[in-house]
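Researcher: Checking consistency across runs. Here is Multidrug export protein MepA again:
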Amino acid sequence: MDNRQATLELGTKPVGQLLMQYALPAIVAMTASSLYNMVDSIFIGQGVGAMAISGLAITFPFMNLSGAVGAAIGVGASTYLSVKLGQKDYKTAELLLGNAIVLKIITGILFGAVCLLFLDPILYFFGATENTIGYAREYMQIILVGNVATHLYFGLNALLRAASKPKQAMYATIFTVVINTILDPIFIWVFDMGIRGAALATILAQMLALCWQLSIFSNPKEMLHFKKGTYRLRADIIKNILAIGISPFSMNACACIVVIFINTALVRYGGDMAVGAYGIANRIAFIFVMIVMGIKQGLQPIAGYNYGAQLHSRLIHVVRLAMLAATVVVVAGWVTGQLLPYYCARLFTSDQTLINHSIQAIRVNMLLFPLIGYQMVVTCFFQSIGKAKISMLLSLSRQMLFLVPLLIILPPIFKIDGVWAALPASDGIAFIVTWVTMETYKKKLRTNAQQ
């Protein structure tokens, strides 16, 4: 089937089949990605110790910040590349690929160098204490040295998807999970490298996957491949990449700020073990969130096409199906978190104190989890139909507009219980705002359809 026929099917094929067709590969890739993030936490907790889990949790803002810088280029370049390939402007697409590679290398080196130079002050700012700084430092030193490989790996995976190679992008993700899972116990236990071993396993897995990605784009038989003369940076291309990438950059940067607020509040009112417990709770929730992200990725092209074709009934139908699928996923997450918190925590640690903290963290963090799927799908819906401002507002509402103020107000009154309470409270408020926004827009769609 050619690309034109596949595109036409977005407006004719049953939306249930379409959603399954587009979402399943994304769900597999997203699930693999979430497992990739869990592997280090499990091996570090079981192989290094409970305090190492807390040290790892301190590095989460680093991951968000690195992700923000990477997304500014990766998402911007891949989205712009999709447009140019759709326009059959292959010359610009090749220039875009070359420019994206150079930008990834430059930002990877700069980010790694600056963060290494000021590593300890940054970690203390992120909530590290004398008990956790050593673990966080050892982990991040390795991660930051390999930062260029990380940026290139994630960037090329996004470009593979944009170049109509979603399976290759999925394979690269699964490959890194498998290699990381194999190397983690070898480096941590056999070579006795501790938390540094986990970081080294992560970087080596990404480097091996990167070699395969580079081989794909180096093949001259591929429609889109590396070409001499495409690596000189061009202002017009960089401008377009950053114009698209500013939205995901902002969301990731805000996520970084929020985690800093959470970590510092947890350290102040609950100590290092509370930080580790939140790290574990976050990893458990992340699995189900990433599956919903896969559903969102499947929804996006279908919703965008049918909105553009003014097929509003199909648009509403596919959004409802995505909401239903997402809700089933998050309800499964809620059941897991409420009924099996001990076993979830036990995956990461055998320390009974950390397990007790984690049981509370998992249950409270996922208290209103069944509402999250709806909010994520609605946010994706507005992004798909070009309502970027509404989408961005809804994305940031839970984190910046509600969670941060609650983290400032509640903990001084209720101590550690106030920190935990802020998490589901922000979920509830954000859901109400999302629901009102969506219902208002649905009325507008019905009115337009009747005219």
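Researcher: Does this match what you'd expect to see?
Model: One thing to look at in this run: The chain has 18 helices and no strands.
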